[in-house]
Write a structure and sequence with these properties.
The structure holds two protein chains of two kinds. Chain A is of the alpha+beta class. Chain A is 27% helix and 38% strand. Chain A has helices at residues 2-24, 51-59, 65-72, 111-120, and strands spanning 27-28, 33-39, 42-49, 75-83, 89-92, 97-100, 105-106, 108-109, 133-136, 141-148, 155-164, 167-177. A six-stranded antiparallel beta sheet of chain A has the order 1-2-3-4-10-8. In chain A, strands 5, 6, 7, 9, 11 and 12 form a six-stranded antiparallel beta sheet that branches. Chain A is globular and about 45 Å long. The termini of chain A are far apart. The relative contact order of chain A is 0.20. By secondary structure, chain B is of the alpha/beta class. Chain B contains six helices and eight strands. In chain B, the strands form two sheets. Chain B has a six-stranded mixed beta sheet with strand order 1-8-7-4-5-6. The A-B interface holds A 29, 31-32, 34, 43, 45, 47, 49-50, 52-53, 55-57, 59-61, 65, 68-69, 78, 80, 82, 84, 86, 124-128, 130-131, 134, 136-144, 183, 186 and B 2-3, 6-7, 11-12, 14-15, 17-19, 21-22, 25-26, 29-30, 33-39, 76, 78-81, 108-109, 135-136, 140, 145-147, 162-167.
């Protein structure tokens, strides 16, 4: 009887873990896909942004056409990162890796790289993009776009990391995909 | 102009459709965080000075607020969490009216026309000062990496608290923190 009870609770625990993992995976709406994880005091959510949306958002800030077109050629994600703990959490995008199905490793294009390019064109804009790296205190969070030099619809795995209380955590989102060139009609 | 033509009605509809889930996600998720927590600086820092125009072109210098506690908020009309926290900033401002307190919301990259248009769409129109940091030099001096970001400056002009990301400024804990500096 005791074995049965223990077995039941073990089964329930495994089911709970499975359900929790499912929630962290890709949840799709008819028009966009998103990937989300809350793990070890760090929350990350990435939402597909199609090229038209990226173009519209940057254009609405009054940026020059070449700047707008440059960014809309990238694989863009709306990104939300948060500290879920009461002590500092640090992320550094330059440590993150994008692995495409051909086995090639890519880096995300950093905000500082965009700003350098814009600055060379005489554009002083430095908003909308997620900061290269940040240390969040309790309650801190931020949202911004992240960019990868991949084509619309291209699949990849994202290997990301963060640090909390002297320990670095590594996780991955498997089977991510850049937004399609044209949004999927609901 | 060519780009404007490219962004015809269809694109704007697509834009609205795609914008919705992202903003909804932000709003949903924001409710789950400790959205009233402020970081107290272990060592208070002198607040970088500024002289910036408001909606009417009147210049506000930080030093004119010495002797008051000042909440400086960096924001933009395009930033959903900035918009979301705006009513709570106004509520806090109303609660602390008559106290040695000032609130300065420093807009980034935009002009009076854009912000005026935006204000017309808000349910709660802010009555605190909106200033313009059109070239983002002041936000850079404060080390702001993303919007919104807020700083609480004491009567001596020192940064005592900061917050990255949206907060519920109407929370009693934030009011208590500010009152503790009076």
């Amino acid at each position: 009887m005791l074995r049965l009870i223990i077995g039941f609770f073990l089964l329930m625990s495994v089911s709970a873990v499975a359900l929790s993992a499912e929630k962290q995976n890709n949840t799709s709406s008819p028009s966009v896909s998103r990937w989300k994880s809350d793990d070890q005091n760090f929350s990350i959510e990435l939402v597909q942004v199609n090229p038209d949306y990226a173009r519209a958002v940057f254009y609405a800030r009054g940026l020059p056409e070449d700047v707008v077109e440059d960014i809309s050629r990238y694989c863009v994600f709306g990104s939300i990162v948060k500290n879920l703990s009461d002590s500092p959490v640090t992320y550094r995008i330059s440590d993150w890796r994008v692995l495409t199905v051909d086995g090639v490793e890519h880096k995300m294009k950093l905000k500082s790289e965009w700003i350098k390019e814009w600055s060379a064109k005489g554009v002083g804009f430095r908003w909308l993009l997620l900061a290269d790296e940040q240390t969040f205190d309790e309650g801190d969070w931020i949202q911004g776009f992240t960019t990868i030099g991949l084509a619309p619809g291209q699949p990849f795995d994202l290997h990301y990391s963060w640090s909390h209380q002297g320990k670095t955590y590594h996780r991955e989102f498997k089977g991510m995909q850049c937004a399609p060139a044209q949004p999927v009609t609901p | 102009m060519r780009l404007l033509n490219q962004l015809h009605l269809k694109h704007y509809l697509i834009f609205l459709l795609t914008l919705l889930p992202f903003n909804v996600a932000v709003a949903e998720e924001q409710a789950a965080v400790n959205d009233y927590k402020l970081k107290q600086l272990a060592r208070p820092l002198p607040a970088p000075g500024f002289s910036l125009p408001d909606m009417d072109g009147k210049v506000h210098a930080l030093k004119q607020y010495q002797g008051k506690v000042v909440l400086v908020n960096f924001w933009g009309t395009w930033c959903p969490p900035c918009i979301r926290e705006m009513p709570s900033l106004e509520k806090l401002y109303q609660k602390l009216k008559g106290e040695p307190f000032a609130m300065l919301a420093i807009n980034q990259w935009e002009d009076e026309e854009k912000v005026f248009e935006f204000m017309g769409q808000l349910k709660t129109i802010p009555t605190f000062s909106i200033l313009f940091d059109a070239d983002s030099k002041i936000s850079a001096a404060y080390g702001v990496q993303g919007l919104p970001s807020s700083f609480i400056i004491d009567k001596q002009g020192r940064i005592m608290y900061r917050a990255t990301g949206g907060r519920d400024f109407n929370h009693p804990e934030i009011e208590r923190t500010i009152r503790s500096l009076f």
